[in-house]
User: Fold these one by one.
Assistant:
Number 1:
Amino acid sequence: MSAFPGELFQSYFRDEIMSNRWIESPDTVTLEPLVENPYDYGIFYGRQSLRNVLQFVRDHPVDVADARESALRKIHRCIARASNAYSHPIRLEYRIARQLQTVHRELTWAELDRRLKVRSRLWNKKRYTLLARELCVLATMHEYWWQRWPDASRPANSPASEKIRTLSRSMAASWRSVRDYLELLGISWKIDVASRLTGGGRIVEELRGQSKKAVYRDHGGVAWLIKYDEESILNPVLASIFARLTGCPGGDLCPVFLDYDQTSSQACSVQPYLKAERIRRFPWCSRQDYSALIGGSRLRASQALCQAVQEWLLGNSDGYQAIVDSHGNIILIDQDRSFFHGQPRRTDRSSRVRVTTSNTANGVDEQDDASAIRRQLIQATMAIPGVAEDLAEYISRVEAMPDAIYEGLARNASYCANQLCSLFYVDISDSSATESLTVMERWIERLMARKRSLRKSIAQRLREVLRTTTSRL
């Protein structure tokens, strides 16, 4: 087909779209097909949340009344920028992929609230309305595509889409395994704190950072630290679950729970607020500094060493940020980047910003030999009688943890900053999408390998540092 002159081409497709010749009902959007067959639209997770959205649309049709018009405008902008008819489906496919990313972002938050057992569809009307509208736009775009090119391959059918579909099933199944295992052991992975907090929360100046942090007290007078930062919601909870299951010395003193703040209508992470002093430059202490800090205490030495081992094992790329509480315990904090495999890399393409994953964050991936555990810390702690035995017991508990549970924690972690699950942020229209997914799989395999070879890796690291046999491991 020869290229249309610019104005004639735009006029042709503007008339075709706005005259609604391709659609029978111009004023309404039907989400039933999308909810019943989400895979056809590129949605591979969150069917129950989709059903909740469908009911929301039925109860509040006025909130999505102009969603179809919004979709028509987006389609028209795609067409108006095309230079010829051949590029029309290519541009629209790209636009559908962008729309799918928006849907995934909002749908992932809805799924998180399902984990929090926020049952009301009005948990946050603004966010629910946005998700409903974005789904309506996506459905309209697909409807146009199918009627305009009935014999063409659907935009959602791509190798990356199929890979995401497989991985999302694994992620959901893994989370069920973790949840069932915790229930079997009688361990709660969430706690209802936010609804019991009194007013007058105060911002903690010494903890002020990129995320909003405030301290509240419950009716019993216990202080709790609340974080609303997206990156600080899920991964610290998963790291806390791991510490609880493995009995990491000191790891149970500052657990992080997943909660829902009804006052602010948003998810948050909650943890006990301990009166503590931050250990400045803890990652860079000399052997003498560590020895002075530990003061000959077997407990503090075991806490410092075992938690350092855990940070390496979980791929925490945030370094050792530690505190000493009022009882003298050493506690490593800020597990935001546990299971974290890469920094987001932003690149401009077609006047947009794209987030992809990188597999080279702070050298974490290259340290499978446990060299990330500092020589000075090992020297200072292993010199204290009993610490080697404590470390050996901790390693035994890690080894006793079922691989499926450890994998479940890793699969449900956030892999990029400000994301809940990077599976649903992958741009399936990008040529590197499949490689990004492969990187995630390789990272999970690497974490699993670390766990399985933990005793060997730590023994080797101790031999390097101490240059002695490590028979006690």
Note: The chain has two domains: 6-155, 276-466.
Number 2:
Amino acid sequence: MQPVLSSHPFVKLVLHPSQLDLLASAGAQALEIVAAMPHFDYTSRPAVRELASYFAGSQASFHSVHAPMYRNESSTTNRERNNVVHRDRAERIAAMDDIKRAIEIAEHAPFKFLVLHLDEFNAPWSDEILDLATTAVEHLRAFARPLGVTLAIENLWNDVTQPQYLVHLLDTGHFEDVGLTFDAGHMNLVAHQRAKAKSTDHAEDGSVVATREAVLAEYMAMLHTMAPRIVTTHLHDNDGTRDAHLYPCDEAAAGAGVDWEQVMPVLRAAPHPLACNLELSSAYGDDPQLAARSRAAFEKLASV
């Protein structure tokens, strides 16, 4: 699996070539750029051209762009979530228009995948959501295809992006050229939630607990559902309580984190050649050991 690093550790900073050089020095053969302002202004032609110039002279290739999650993200008081399945038509159109600006990066700096969120956090899956998601994916797919970009919808912790619904969306829409982004950390959160929902065991404080075996069973069932349609990844870890974006195999997740020995063979056997794409926390942006720890994470994942 090709080692890839996301620019996510620097998402709170303005992107600079030196940061990309640092990621490449960690052993990454390709990079993912997070389209988020002020980190990277995907609407700025000079910024896009600078990025294109960087990749033209770098040994690292341009793997993917994470679609912008917010509009007006440079503002602390007026952030609007890009929700392509919003029930308000104007909101859906605004979200898709903003995401298309990120896809247009490929006109100057070609990349393979656009990682897409379906951000309806409060609504359960429904036929209405399926219709809205089908329309949004069809629209963005038609825009991305001529630029050589493949949409890759990411599993989150919300109901709408559970693996069974994502696969159903792709099958219903006959989206053979649209794939999925497997997010290892998000799936760990959902596996813990699902296992606890089925458990009758309680801790001393009265909270519901689940066995490691139950969590793993939920995790692997979801992974196998997604596996045939996965085209790229976001690999990171957590302890099942919050989306911490830890290094894979991090000690802070020990006992409750992703079971990489079970996960990695499934990813290697997936029908599409997959990247080993680390999406690490912004808390690591000023970590002087970022490159060394990332390289060690790549080595650990390659060995399991």
Note: The radius of gyration is 19 Å.
Number 3:
Amino acid sequence: MNTFVDLHMHSTASDGSLPPEELVRQVKLAGLSAMALTDHDTVAGCALAAATAAAEGLDFLPGIEISCEFPRPGTMHLLGYGVDIHSPALHELTRRLIAGRTGRNARMIELLQSAGIDVTEEELLAEAGGGTVGRPHLAAILVRRGFVSSVREAFNLYLGQGGRFYVDKETTTSRQAIAMIHSAGGVAVLAHPCQLRRENHAQLMTVIKSLADQGLDGIEVIHSDHRESLIDHLSDLARRLGLLATGGSDFHGSSKPYITLGRAGRRRIPREVFDAVRQRIAKRRP
């Protein structure tokens, strides 16, 4: 069995550039043995990805990445692994979050148009191709239309926090997200802790300890945005708090071409990470 996995990636069901089935095939080509699909605020791609993974001989976990309330300039996302994609609680949460995204997209388009940047909602929906619509789709339009030279520039100037046309999105509390993930039979993991933007290790530990008290199961230790020193610190923190230490590339495809499936900087994610998550899921379910 191949010894590496990837537990954080996105398909066209949210803001990735590859359809779920093609993404799974790319995971296979990358020589990985297991994966989790973690689209933003939706599990719409999981059934097709699971079927393709079975055909390709890959182990698969259905997943989701949920946006949670958190003070600026940080952002908090929670990964849910092994969730029942038919859970009523999960579907109600994703319905609300996606409805919030729709309102947010409309407001950003209004702001862009008021500044003379002619982008339409129809154009944005076409760009998303039926998946959950998000800022990367809007950024791709701005690049193609020549308003900016790159997706990164679109976020820096217009769509990211501090950009001219940034609008906050619908979120839920971390406590509610963790409870929902657990009710759907999954385990809850803090995604890319670096994006909390805490000033020091003590502040970071305070946030993670609070999440652990709410029922958090793990920390995404290995991630493409994490330096080696942070990986070491998070690994130690996970051990001290009795949390799972997970990892993933956060692959999106063409919108983030510098990220490679199965790799997070110089690191790869070992198979035992996937097995530990799956064991925790088995303990949680009846």
Note: The beta strands are 4-6, 34-37, 59-68, 76-81, 187-190, 218-223, 244-248, 263-264, 267-270.
